[in-house]
7-carboxy-7-deazaguanine synthase
Amino acid sequence: MNDVADAAAAAAALQPERLKLTEIFLSLQGEARDAGWPTVFVRLTGCPLRCTYCDTTYSFYGGQWWEIDAILAEVAKHGVRHVCVTGGEPLSQKRCLTLLEKLCDAGYVVSLETSGAIAIDGVDTRVSRVLDIKTPGSGEVARNLWSNLPLLTAHDQVKAVICSREDFDWAKQIVLQHRLFEVCDVLFSPSAGQITPRMLADWIIEEKLPVRFQMQLHKVLWGEEPGR
């Protein structure tokens, strides 16, 4: 029995590492610190959360299996420096950590968009971790993994999608309580259809809150067009 198990383990070790992907495409980064840069997006399939404002629900299911080396080859075809690994929730696939490491080894400027519900301690330190804080309006506030916050560095970013004034006040308290603005960039985004961009901008100015207002640049340019 041990010989059979050992043989199975050896065979598994020889199998190429794979990830399930929804899409790979070239666009402009629409959010966060690198907004505006031509960027290859690697969108992994699957997410354990169901945020009320999610605009990528198509990535929850389906997808195709890709060998990690094939992903790197596809990224290289686009000929740009910036790569964003996103989802879904990319960290819900354990081999995402291997992909991130290999992208960094290849010399790319790599960012990871993650929900904040899964531990980020295993992510390569060369990656800029864009960590969501789920507000009450997201419907997933209970999924925030607060132990992630002490792990953040100046290389990382924190993002909150604001659905209401109540969300804003709640997120303000989190930012101030944890003094996140002293650690890394903090970004607030308006939730489309729930508050207007101007409302959020006015609240930030009125409160003199040390956060960065942002909108989704790709949606301003291309609306809901897939792969943009």
Remarks:
- Residues 7-13 have pLDDT under 50 and may be disordered.
- DSSP finds six helices and nine strands in the chain.
- Helices lie at 2-14, 68-78, 96-105, 165-178, 197-207, 217-222.
